[in-house]
Specification:
Helices cover 44% and strands 13% of the residues. It has 61 residues and is α+β, with helices and mostly antiparallel strands. The protein has one domain (2-50). Strands 1-2 form a two-stranded parallel sheet. Strand 1 (2-5), helix 1 (8-16) and strand 2 (21-24) form a beta-alpha-beta unit. The protein is flat.
Amino acid sequence: MFVLSPQTDDVTNAYALGANSCLLKQPAQEGLEPIAQGIAAYASLIAESARGNTAWATSQV
């Protein structure tokens, strides 16, 4: 399960409910383009992991 949230408290709750991935939305952010870019960057990290690269980063959109 993937969660996009504007609050760090939601991330803790999401993991408690079984989420395996969370992205934080910046509070002052407008529009969907930055969110789409963040999700694309996250998908790239997942693809790298699938290819055996275990380097992970924390993503905020």
